[in-house]
Design a protein that fits this description.
The protein folds into four domains: 190 residues, Heat Shock Protein 90, CATH 3.30.565; 117 residues, 2-Layer Sandwich (Ribosomal Protein S5, domain 2); 171 residues, formyl-coa transferase, domain 3 (2-Layer Sandwich), CATH 3.30.1540; 93 residues, 2-Layer Sandwich (Ribosomal Protein S8, Chain: A, domain 1). The chain is 37% helix and 22% strand. The protein has 19 helices and 22 strands. An eight-stranded mixed β-sheet has the order 5-4-3-6-2-1-7-8. A five-stranded mixed β-sheet has the order 9-10-13-11-12, sandwiched between helices. The chain has a four-stranded antiparallel β-sheet with strand order 16-17-18-22. The chain is globular. Bound molecules: adenosine-5'-diphosphate and magnesium ion. Magnesium ion (MG) binds next to α2.
């Protein structure tokens, strides 16, 4: 055995750097948190090669005094606490005083900083923890730190880094959550190709959600604000019809810090409960403020997790409040809502936050304009092509068969409503006619069904498209004339990132000049129906969705969108034959009660309930 000796400062720092700095995203996290702590209201992050080549963070905060700059880079040097008790009244993100020392130990770093009160600032270069140059420099107030060649001197660590795209998306996820935590700060993230995301810094969480998640989520926000006992919560829930397949979009900010905590997660997931299909997670953006004395952020070196001293209580309160709020805003009447004579089901499930009604109207106008402009399909052709036998149309009677039992099971799983009996398929029914060019009325043994024509048609087309995609997977069809795509650098970046997935579906996208891309081929499932306008719409939809859903969900999302585009609209009048065909097809789909966007399709009015209304 070798003799015991004390490790050099450099080796010790390299070892402990491993705890805090695992990858480029950890560098970004630490630097940006420092910028936030410095009081900046503008923070610019720029990365190249997913941060493996370089990360630069610039802020307009208070800067570091030139006399203290070397100190900032030594371990356990911090301006944020001086005794252990300070941790319990902390208002800053940092406090351990090890980030800068750790990063400096495993990279080549340049730091430029000036405090507003000083005439000039300092520029310092550090390599592997050793200062290699120092000079005075005229600089703008604030701090700019550039970290190059991360892990250049610890190759074993470098080996664990992932592909550029993976590291880059970790960084953009991290920045996304920081921007949501601090809407008053104007954040930008850019890479070699240009801007990836930016937030306005207006101080409004809503604005940030809009700029990161787009209109669809924005329109479904449900404000949650309450103050109870030791807990104060503000932020937004999202209507459960929007959901994702990972927890990544459950955001919790405890005293302004993005955190994970199992009690918070449980509160939210249990409150949403069966409003979500199995395996899906909600989107929430919640600021939770509680007395710092109840929060221990020091249980994890990177402070990602926090511990509450009254975890159970926090969970109970939060869960109750969310449940109440969801009940109020989404009704959760499902199809049985109508049985109580409450006709507000449609409004109920689209209940949105109150403040956005104007915005909502504008969105609706936009959507209507879009309908008008979209290459108008021929109404006559609407139901052509998907054959339902004459027999099925005439004898609209319907017997539950094995395959239907299966689809019922899927149905239960997907909708997981507490009232399963409401989901049974109708037996014999008769089409009575159309109601307000919006619902198809079906008389059944038990009462009346109102079938939303658009949602129903959307479900039918979606199921057909899914079947087609399965058959012909990545077949593509060359466009006669390729379609040029005018994209911002940000949008181009998104397309590059998901190009393999797009190609797998059958899209072909080529470079066209220095700044444009061209759509050369599309998947066969988009065949006939897709005019150029519609294709552009689909590309726009992809761009809007790509950042906020998993890549593997993208094809489903495109099918959903395409189904929605093709489906008969509210306001279209239908012939009896069309209504019969649509109803017959609907009850053979995988889920006749929910459209692919999870909106209800059928409202049920039971005869019993109706009779009660007239005291019969
Ligand atoms: P901590 O954030 O835990 O205090 P760091 O190693 O991250 O430790 O930073 C050390 C110190 O350097 C901070 O306490 C702060 O005083 C100073 N500092 C670091 N980054 C900045 C910045 N962007 N602006 C102003 N001061 C900074
Ligand atoms: Mg710090």
């Amino acid at each position: 055995m070798a003799r015991i000796q004390k490790l050099s400062k450099q080796v010790a720092n390299q070892i402990s750097a491993g705890e805090v700095i695992e990858r480029p995203a950890s560098v970004v996290k630490e630097l940006v948190e420092n910028s936030v702590d410095s009081g900046a209201d503008k923070i610019e992050v720029s990365i190249s090669e997913g941060g493996k080549e370089s990360v630069r963070v610039r802020d307009n905060g208070q800067g570091i005094a030139s006399s203290e700059i070397e100190l900032a880079f030594s371990r356990y040097a911090t301006s944020k606490i001086s005794s252990i008790d300070d941790i319990y009244s902390l208002t800053t993100l940092g406090f351990r005083g090890e980030a800068l020392a750790s990063i400096a130990a495993v990279s080549r770093m340049e730091i430029k900083s000036r405090q507003a009160a000083e005439d000039s600032g300092v520029r310092l270069e550090i390599e592997g923890g050793e200062v290699v140059s120092r000079e005075r420099a005229g600089l703008p107030a604030g701090t700019e730190i550039t970290v190059r060649d991360l892990f250049f001197n610890t190759p074993a660590r470098y080996k664990y880094l992932k592909k550029t795209g993976t590291e880059a998306s970790r960084i953009s996820r991290l920045i996304t959550s920081l921007t949501l935590a601090r809407p008053e700060i104007n954040f930008t993230l850019e890479n070699q190709r240009g801007e990836v995301l930016s937030t306005p810094g207006s101080g409004n969480l809503e604005d940030n959600i809009y700029s990161l998640y787009g209109e669809e989520v924005y329109d479904d926000l449900i404000a949650l604000n309450f103050s109870r006992e030791f807990l104060q919560v503000s932020g937004y829930l999202v209507n459960p019809r929007q959901h994702r397949s990972s927890r990544q979009h459950e955001y919790f900010f405890v005293n302004g810090r993005p955190v994970k905590n199992r009690f918070l997660k449980m509160a939210v997931e249990e409150a949403y409960g069966t409003r979500l299909p199995a395996g899906k997670y909600p989107l929430v953006f919640l600021n939770i403020d509680l007395n710092p004395i109840l929060v221990d952020v020091n249980i994890h070196p990177t402070k990602k997790e926090v511990k509450f001293s009254r975890g159970e209580a926090v969970k109970d309160i939060l869960q109750q409040e969310i449940e109440q709020n969801l009940k109020k805003s989404t009704g959760y009447q499902e199809f049985s809502g109508a049985e109580t004579g409450d006709y507000s089901v449609r409004d109920g499930y689209s209940a949105r936050k109150d403040t956005s009604s104007q915005e909502r109207d504008r969105a609706r106008d936009r959507a209507q304009d879009k309908d008008k402009n979209s290459a108008g399909y021929d109404r006559q052709d609407l139901f052509a092509g998907r054959d339902v036998s004459q027999q099925q149309i005439e004898s609209v009677s319907y017997q539950a068969s094995d395959s239907r039992t299966n689809s019922e099971e899927t149905l239960f799983r997907e909708s997981s409503s507490p009232q399963k009996s409401d989901f049974s398929l109708p037996g014999d029914y008769q089409v009575l006619g159309q109601f307000h060019n919006l619902f198809i009325l079906l008389e059944t043994g038990e009462g009346l069904l109102l079938v939303d024509q658009h949602n129903a048609h959307e479900r039918i087309i979606f199921d057909n498209l899914c079947a087609e995609l399965e058959d012909k997977s990545n077949d593509s069809r060359l466009l006669l004339t390729p379609l040029p795509l005018e994209l911002s650098p940000q949008e181009k970046e998104i397309i590059y990132d998901i190009k393999p997935e797009l190609e797998e579906m059958g899209f072909s996208i080529e470079e066209f000049g220095p700044s444009s891309l061209m759509l050369a081929a599309v998947p066969v499932f988009l065949e006939e129906e897709s005019g150029r306008e519609n294709l552009l719409d689909i590309i726009n939809q992809i761009l809007e969705k790509a950042r906020i859903i998993e890549k593997h969900e993208l094809s489903e999302e495109i099918l959903k969108y395409s189904a929605c585009q093709q489906a008969v609209k509210e306001g279209a009048s239908l012939s009896m034959a069309e209504m019969r065909k649509l109803s017959a097809e609907l009850f053979q789909t995988s889920n006749p009660y929910r459209c692919p966007h999870h909106r209800p399709i059928v409202i049920r009015l039971s005869l019993d309930q109706l009779k009660k209304k007239v005291d019969r």
